[in-house]
Amino acid sequence: MELAIVFAAGQIAAALALLNGLFTANGQGQIGAATIEAIARQPESAGAVRGTMFITLGVAETSAIYGIVFAFLLLYANPLIPQFLALAGY
Question: Nearest to residue 80, comparing CAs of 4, 21, 28, 6?
Fold first, then answer.
């Protein structure tokens, strides 16, 4: 029974880690919208604004990648399972 609770907690934590992707997509949409507005206001600064946008999108994307890595870690290589089995005497 206790092992099932550990597995369920890992599944829930992985789902919460994957929710990070929704917030990342929303943030990237806002970055793109702000870039389009800035270029519309000052077309002569399009190169600098576009470069800054790509750097910012790359930084924002790393958050989603970390969420996916953390979810895979919890689903397939949960570090708590061996410790729990050792404590339970299995």
Answer: 6
Q: pTM, whole model, 2 decimals?
A: 0.72
Residue 12 structure tokens: 């829930």
Q: Alpha helices, DSSP H only, in the chain?
A: 2-18, 20-41, 46-76, 80-88
Instruction: Give 38: exposed, middle or buried? Use CB within 10 Å, 0-12, 13-18, 19+.
Output: middle
Three-state secondary structure call for residue 42: coil
Q: Domains in the chain, ordered, with CATH?
A: 2-88 (1.20.20.10)
pLDDT digits (tens, 9 = 90+) for 21-66: 889 999 999 999 999 999 999 999 999 999 999 999 999 999 999 9
- Is the C-alpha dihedral spanning 49, 50, 53, 59 positive or negative? negative
